[in-house]
Design goal:
Elements lengths: L2 H18 L7 H10 L8 H31 L4 H8 L13
Length: 101
């Protein structure tokens, strides 16, 4: 479930960046060329469609890398912080100190 916020963050990042800086990037430039080539009625929204395509593509790629890296780290035990902490923890019971008189 940690992948959802990662996808959403990078989707929004690439979508907003594509709208703000209109530089042709793959796959958005292909979608724009396709819309313009077939002379669809969406020509007024080409930049937004291109930005959505970029956001979806790059958000998905980064999400996939994140999920695969997280899975690999979980399998190798590197990110298993809780199990490592349990082994080195002290006992929670209080020790009674007896004073000699």
């Amino acid at each position: 479930m940690r992948g959802g916020p990662v996808f959403l963050a990078f989707f929004l990042l690439f979508t907003i960046a594509s709208i703000a800086v209109p530089v042709p990037m793959f796959p958005g430039n292909l979608v724009a060329a396709w819309v313009l080539q077939f002379d669809l009625e969406l020509t007024a929204f080409v930049s937004y469609i291109s930005a959505l395509a970029n956001g979806l593509m790059y958000g998905f790629v980064i999400w996939l890398v994140f999920v695969l890296a997280t899975r690999k780290l979980d399998e190798s035990g590197v990110s298993d912080y809780k199990a490592g902490k349990r082994q080195g923890q002290r006992s929670r019971t209080k020790r009674v100190v007896k004073y000699r008189s």
